[in-house]
Give the backbone structure.
Amino acid sequence: MIFPAPERAFLTRQRIGHLATADRSGVPSVVPVCFAVADDALYTALDEKPKRTRRVRRLQNIEKNPELAFVADYYDEDWSALGWVMIRGRGDILESGAEFETACDLLKRRYAQYAKMTLSPVIAIRLLEVRSWGNLDG
């Protein structure tokens, strides 16, 4: 599946999204993430910010249950300006290879903070469904 143009444009204007994963039993976990959009995938990565472990819950969940969701939204006190894009997909964990390198490049170009960081692993979200609501033009 390829990103529809309005949803892709909306996502490129947003700076943060929320990634939802669930473990094998269906227990959910949601985290805010930085992300980059490609034609047919969305990428997010672990960076060098301090963490208790390198095998964070989102990675553990994807290894056991690759079904996930991602949402980015825009809020305004003028509710006619509200909008969101939600992706339902499958997560792949990338640690090397051409797609991994492309994803890291996209993320580093999008976020200056990533420029000198090592990003690994990368989560590739394979699009199964893209839904949206509201004003995607704002």
Summary: Residues 6 and 94 are 27 Å apart (CA to CA). The helical segments are 5-13, 57-64, 98-110. DSSP finds three helices and seven strands in the chain. The chain has a mean pLDDT of 95.
